[in-house]
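Dear support,

I submitted the protein below through the web form. The confirmation email said the job was done, but the results page showed an empty box. After a refresh the structure appeared. I'm attaching both so you can tell me whether what I see now is the final result or a partial one.
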Amino acid sequence: MVLLFAMEKKVVIAVVCVAVVVGAVAATSVVADAMVVEMHAGLASEGGSKLKMHISYIDNLPSGDEKGLFYALDLGGTNFRVMRVQLGGKDGGLVNQEFTKVSIPPSLMIGTSDALFDYIAAELAKFIAQEGQEFELPPGKQRELGFTFSFPVIQTSIASRTLVRWTKGFSIDDAVNDTVGTLAGGKYSYKDVVAAVILGTGSNAAYVEHAQAIPKWHGDLPKSDEMVINMEWGNFRSSHLPLTEYDHAMDNESLNPGEEIFEKLISGMYLGEIVRRVLQKMAEEAVFFGDIVPPKLKIPFILRTPDLSAMHHDTSSDLILVEKKLKDILEISNASLQTRKVVVELCNIVATRGSRLAAAGILGILKKIGRDTVKDMDAQKTIIAMDGGLFEHYSEYNKCFENTLNELLGEEVSKTISIEHANDGSSVGAALLAASHSLYLLS
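What the results page shows now:
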């Protein structure tokens, strides 16, 4: 892509190779088709695809009839949450929920798994000890808890899993996916939910698959004939993905080179960094910010996606917010209005690519489960549960994402597809899964 911009009464042509927009709908569809191929391969055998397609062993999603008191732990980063949920049954719904957030000491993030989980267990016990008599359980019953563990794992049963690797600053040598939790939370509220997607700092998707369509499944088929699949779709890669020199450089310099390629194109952790890398090259090769390359511009990840979003959403005639961001973050105080306009356009290009690729991923899921066409006049409603800060707060990204999905599906099919925000779905979903798999009869 060629960016044209005026500076000091002359036109500077910056050939920066920002071929980052999946322009035509056809090109985006090709990515979706590649996703479907990899989904089949990942379901066929372990290691058959970059898409892990982990079997969650969850074959019984919440129905809405669950009743009683349930708990959840949500470990997803430097904080974890302990939650208590009161369910009122078919007509009562989610009666009440309370939680506490606890910071994890840095020493426990690089210690042993025993020390980390002992600390979590102690905080859970403290949370329960503060409960009043209204939360006392009947004799013979124990509290039931769901655990959202937002790190790559291989599930071996509904109650056991093997950690693949620590991420997000954790480095522990001995050691319910959040998207699966979001799917459960969405299913409780909307019976037609078939998939859940997290679009936040990272990204992942989970969906409901027919058990007979999982060749790598061994053993008796579940009674429901359904199984939740944790795709780990951040690891999807294909020759059809529009990777640029900036993506390759960022990947090579990352902590996990060659991994999570799809996530590095669409998620909030990386969008701002891609923009920074493009701006740095423009500064070096096209004197975009003057004769001197701003030193701050050379610092990886100094430009965060919330900053990208703020500049992208600046509607003022003089782009005053863009000017402030450039000054406060990059110490660039002399950017002309034309320069600021180019920065906004670059934000738009990178966000558009990410949102269109995310939409392509969802189209891949819909194609895999046969929800991308309308077979009759009474077509079944299809709901995708969405969560994550990128989806929730970056409105231009979100708008492009939904427009692209509608464009790909066509008007008739789009009427049967609904995107619903499952706010805090991962935490609540863990408690709901504890309820739907309760050891006690629900009454």
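Response: this is the final, complete result; the empty box was a page-load delay. The mean pLDDT is 83.
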